[in-house]
Design a protein that fits this description.
The structure holds three protein chains of three kinds. Chain A is an all-alpha fold. Chain A has helices spanning about 1-35, 40-55, 60-85, 95-115, 140-165, 165-175, 175-180, 185-215, 220, 225-235, 240-260, 265-280; strands at about 130-135, 135-140. In chain A, α2 packs across α8. The longest helix of chain A is centred in the first third of the chain and has 32 residues, at about 1-35. In chain B, a hairpin with a 2-residue loop joins β1 (about 5-15) and β2. Classes of the chains: A mainly alpha, B alpha/beta, C mainly alpha.
């Protein structure tokens, strides 16, 4: 009884960490500029496909592709920000929605055209396969790796935000954009960099997601809701909030699928709507 | 003693450790022209928001014409005769002044819920809206989109919208704020022309407006009422000069 | 600068914007063209009418009230499944089934409005998205009711008014859809030109100011949500009845996104925007139907981006600006806006 429960918790936590990596970029950029970027997971998809291409076509080792996924997604973010996003910082939410939905469609169609519509076959490197026995539980090695990577990144983010000048400015901008501008902080420029980093992290998440949930062109839409839930529940601009929300969501989703499969995703949507009504600015967030 | 048109009793509000309002007691008799002044951060906006119902007080009560309205939603208070203007123009950019004022009149008369009645048939409401605009000198521009109007006329429209609700108590939040000198004449004429039955509370920084229109001044500092009195009393009060007018404005 | 004229003047200008115009007459006359000119494409014409009605329902919500909904297909699907289930249950009379479906969708919209009226901005967008996904998921899981991924089977419609059968030729389908569209349009036009319509635009322009005018904003939002949902349900029911099938596709996010594109393409807040958009979008899709569907999504995405960046106000908005700048040469057009002014 206990063992499957702990197993579910472990898997749920791993899934939650994946969701965290995928969501954190959106949480911060939303908190900073209130920019509704529904195309956030397209960057994740890009990272995933970069990894696929590098490992399958060019024979790169998996771990080496991770930085590449990050950089590719970040680069794409820089380009798109310059070309398109920048013009809509002060536009209505509708316009931002429409633009980013348009990007999602284009990215999904491109991915389907180039890679086909089915899930990409992926060979996990041998050292990440299998499971390790810890205290009577069998923990998947890949999941352990994922959790480790995510925690490491979380630590780096927290340290970065707390102790670097850039991080402090980002925090100021999230807290009170107008005041930050008044203090002379170039919010748009900080946003561009933050956006690139956030999208890069999404790309990394996408690469890591292949083994856990699979990668197909519909990825950008399928998981968008989960990411939005994490961001909404965790609160815009809050790393701690996103961490908790992602963990909760990951565990509930895995537990739900294990214990009550008939309900499926239904419950998650209900919970999200309920939470948004109760606390429109999220559990720990401040905006709106 | 006749019932005050607007009264508050012991209003309190805290935001975390910041005390935005403590024990605010106000009493405005009918037809009063009072001004509320105080430095930035004194809690004037918080007070106005509590009076209009946009913010719930932590303690205390708000009375409108003797009836307690503390628990009522903002639109319900408007229906009871409380109107306000906003310090920053809060208008309908793409509606014309006539449309916006007609909307206000229709909301007042309950017509706005009627979806089957064509606007064509609401002659009385449109006429009334037009009359309000005419009395404020906006008739000539009543068909242009609001965002095309010069700033001064937008401020006038702010007042028009408030008047369209036929208020008994009107809160004017810095009506002259940001209005260039050459456009402020129309504004002051409009304010001077307000009905004598209307109870008006100005929230002001501009001492010009205060001296011109107010018969009584309330000074707020740090969430509390410091002193009340006639404009000349307040102007002569050294405490007020110290904290509000500030050292830089000596003499 | 105009002087304040006699009392008739202000009203006249206000009415002028609401009168029927010649162009509108021409438009509706043109809707009869498919019967005569394109009899082979009546099924497509019927789809266009249905999409136009669906877009019109979204326009009430988005274009006039400023409520951004990414889940409007939920009401479309609810209407479709209701009509389908009624017919499947043995009652194949079209009009009563249609009205019942619209009523059910309207009730769903009213229920949803309690949620919609409580949140704004991003939270609202997410709630609408979530609701759309929730309804889709619920329908998917409840395959005992909806047929799940296989869709609803056994939908058989009786002849309309006892005489007009729903057949492959499409005359009945298009005639029926067009008639429903016209009636719905007239109702929406009436609503939009009423004090309530003015209140909706007030909510769109500045939701914060409305309570300060004494407006019961939540009540207004509830009404428009119910209305809009009922119309969307009407469109869905039409689809179910004219094609005699109902599938999960009616509830997908793609459907919500598509109708959003259609509305924005034509121009939101202009009554005819959804109709114009539907014509262009569906006819284009039909012409390019031979293409790989991936291409279609690619170009739809590109189109969306193009509209947002370059042609705010959609087609009708662009045309209005052109007409405006011709009338007043050298005058600056109104601030570029996604949504129309009338």
């Amino acid at each position: 009884m206990l063992v499957p429960l702990l197993g579910v918790l472990f898997d749920g936590f791993a899934y939650g960490m994946l969701l965290f990596l995928l969501s954190i970029g959106l949480a911060v950029t939303l908190g900073m500029m209130n920019f509704v970027n529904l195309a956030h997971l397209s960057f994740a998809m890009l990272g995933g496909y970069v990894t696929i291409t590098l490992t399958q076509k060019l024979g790169w080792p998996f771990l080496a592709t991770l930085p590449a996924a990050f950089l590719a997604a970040a680069a794409a973010a820089v380009v798109l920000e310059r070309l398109l996003y920048r013009r809509l910082y002060r536009a209505s939410e509708l316009d931002q929605c429409l633009l980013t939905i348009g990007l999602v469609f284009m990215s999904v169609a491109t991915a389907a055209y180039v890679f086909g519509t089915s899930q990409q076959p992926f060979e996990t490197p041998p050292y990440l396969r299998g499971a390790v026995a810890v205290l009577g539980l069998r923990l998947g090695i890949y999941r352990v790796f994922l959790i480790g990577a995510a925690l490491g990144i979380t630590l780096a983010l927290i340290l970065g935000l707390e102790y670097t000048r850039f991080g402090t400015q980002v925090r100021a901008a999230v807290d009170n954009q107008r005041m930050a501008r008044g203090l002379g902080i170039d919010v748009e420029r900080r946003f561009a960099i933050t956006f690139a980093i956030g999208s890069g992290l999404a790309g990394l998440g996408g690469a890591l997601a292949i083994e856990m949930v699979g990668l197909d062109p519909a990825f950008a839409l399928t998981y968008l809701v989960y990411v939005l839930i994490v961001v909404a529940v965790g609160g815009l601009g809050s790393i701690g909030g996103s961490f908790i929300a992602a963990t909760l969501l990951g565990v509930s989703d895995v537990a739900g699928k294990y214990y009550v499969p008939e309900l499926g995703a239904f419950l998650i949507y209900l919970v999200m709507i309920g939470l948004l009504m109760w606390r429109p600015s999220g559990l720990l967030g401040r905006r709106q | 003693m006749s019932t005050p048109a607007l009264a508050t009793r012991a209003l309190d509000k805290r935001f975390g450790s910041v005390v935005a309002a403590r024990g605010i007691d106000l009493s405005l008799p009918s037809g009063a022209r009072h001004a509320l002044i105080g430095p930035n951060g004194a809690g004037k906006t918080t007070l106005i928001n509590m009076i209009t119902g946009m913010l719930a007080p932590d303690g205390g009560q708000v009375f409108l014409g003797g009836d307690e309205v503390t628990g009522l939603a903002p639109d319900q208070r408007v229906k009871r005769g409380l109107a306000r203007t906003f310090q920053i123009n809060t208008l309908f950019p793409r509606l014309s002044p006539l449309e916006a004022t007609t909307l206000a009149v229709c909301e007042r008369s309950g017509l706005a819920a009627r979806w089957w009645k064509p606007l064509r048939a609401c002659r009385a409401e449109v006429d009334e809206a037009h009359e309000i605009l005419r009395s404020l000198g906006l008739a000539s521009v009543c068909h242009r989109a609001t965002h095309e109007l010069p700033y001064g006329q937008q401020r006038l429209l702010e007042i028009a919208l408030a008047l369209a609700t036929r208020p008994r108590v009107l809160l004017l939040d810095e009506p002259a704020a940001g209005v260039p000198r050459d456009e402020s004449v129309a504004l002051f004429t409009a304010i001077a022309g307000l009905s004598v039955d209307l109870t008006v509370l100005f929230i002001e920084h501009d001492m010009d407006v205060v001296f011109r229109f107010a018969s009584r001044v309330i000074v707020m500092v740090g969430g509390q009422v410091l002193v009340e009195g006639s404009p000349s009393e307040i102007a002569g009060d050294p405490r007020v000069a110290e904290i509000y007018l500030g050292g830089a404005r000596r003499g | 600068m105009r002087e304040a004229g006699p009392p008739e003047d202000p009203r006249r200008e206000l009415w002028a914007r609401q009168r029927w115009r010649g162009l509108e007459g021409a438009f509706w006359l043109a809707t009869l063209a498919p019967f005569v000119l394109f009899p082979a494409h009546l099924q497509l014409a019927s789809q266009v009418a249905i999409a136009g009605l669906f877009a019109l329902s979204l326009d009430l919500l988005l274009g006039y009230s400023g409520i951004v909904s990414l889940g409007h297909a939920a009401f479309f699907g609810i209407g479709a499944y209701t009509a389908g289930l009624i017919a499947k249950g043995g009652w194949g009379e079209p009009v009563s089934g249609l009205l019942a479906a619209a009523a059910v969708a309207g009730v769903a919209g009213y229920a949803a409005s309690f949620i919609f009226s409580r949140v704004r901005h991003l939270a609202l967008i997410m709630v609408t998205l979530g609701l759309g996904l929730l309804v889709h998921e619920a329908a998917n899981k409840a395959h005992w009711l909806t047929g799940g991924a296989d869709g609803l089977q056994g939908v058989r419609m009786w002849p309309l008014a006892g005489r007009f059968k729903f057949d492959l030729y499409g005359y009945t389908a298009y005639g029926y859809s067009l008639a429903v569209l016209v009636v719905a349009f007239l109702v929406v036009r009436r609503v939009v030109n009423s004090p309530f319509g003015l209140a909706l635009r007030g909510i769109r322009e500045n939701a914060v100011r409305m309570p300060a005018l004494g407006a019961p904003t939540r009540s207004h939002v509830r009404t428009v949500c119910a209305f809009s949902a009922a119309l969307a349900g009407l469109a869905g029911a039409l689809l179910a009845q004219t094609t005699e099938t109902v599938s999960l596709a009616t509830l997908e996010f793609q459907r919500s996104a598509e109708i959003l594109v259609i509305l924005i393409l034509g121009g939101a807040g202009r009554l005819y925007g959804g109709l114009v958009g539907a014509v262009i979008f569906l006819v284009a899709r039909d012409r390019f139907s031979g293409l790989n569907p991936q291409y279609w999504y690619f170009w739809m995405g590109a189109l969306l981006i193009l509209i947002v960046m370059a042609v705010p106000g959609g087609i009708l908005g662009g045309l209005a600006r052109l007409a405006g700048s011709r009338r007043r040469p050298g005058a600056r057009g109104p601030t570029a806006s996604r949504v129309g002014s009338s």
